[in-house]
Amino acid sequence: MLETTRRPDRHRHRVNPFELSDEDFRYKYRFSKRFIEKIVGILREDLVHDPRGCPLSPEIQVVCALRNWARHEIQDDKADLHGVSQPVVSRTCKKVAEILSRKSREFIKMPTTLNEQQETIRKFRSIANFPTVIGAIDCTHIRVKKVNADGGQLYINRKGFSSINVQVVCDADLKIMDIVTRWRGSVHDSRIFRECRLKQRFEAGAFSGILLGDSGYPCTPYLFTPLLNPTTPQEERYNRSHIRTRNTVERGMFGDIETAKKTIVACAVLHNMAIDMREDVFSGERDSIEQYSSEPIVQSYIAPSIRGNIRRRQFIETHFK
Fold this sequence. Notes:
Low-confidence stretches: 286-299
Radius of gyration: 23 Å
Shape: globular
Helix content: 40-55%
Strand content: 5-15%
Order of helices and strands: HHHHHHHEEEHHEEHHHH
Largest sheet: 5 strands, mixed
Distance between the termini: 96 Å
């Protein structure tokens, strides 16, 4: 009889990440233990144990997902670190993203009351003395794995890689107030805004302030863009203040499209929660953000509307003398 050698079972050693020092924990997971424990508390009821096989605690599920999103490491590395298989890590990241994205309305929202809007406007004005700003808008291309299905070429953006074009509106603290993740990379920024619900709310007079956007958007009475060729001191002051007041960031990820969309929203929720809890979410990045915000964004120029051009001209003459 021929005997086959049975491969011994590989028993994975599952460590407790909360036994790490505070410094090592933040290095591996980007956030503090206090913040992770808060996230676990919010998600605990949804992160039920899998009755099949060896269950993962809510704590391990959350840290697996955060290490994936924060450090962009391959899943095998995270599997070895947390003592779970690669497929389990993949399912866990997807599950945590879905749960967090369902909570987006609770943590991602525009200021609605008059007091909230006035406080947002005040904070924006403190940056570069640009008045009546309630939000800074921009689109950023989130890189995704190449889409091979029919229509996959529509995800290829003008820089030649596959992406989702994500529209984000931030406040003066860089807290995300509105996010749209449903558009493919080939879609222009102006179309995304033209067809979003936020535009309808501005046209209906829901907000007392204006948005600031780059030249990829048309100038309208509620969305001001930089002047293409400033010729007067007032126009130059307007442009300088406009650029300093608006900030953008870019990130990338790999995965299937639907998971990527949920993960983008999940990261936006985490971002806002971290700001609310005063986590240092920009550790090591503030200098690059400041440097980036001091330069104009190169975009295909969109001609302003007549009403928008008139309103912007009146605004500059009133506030930037």
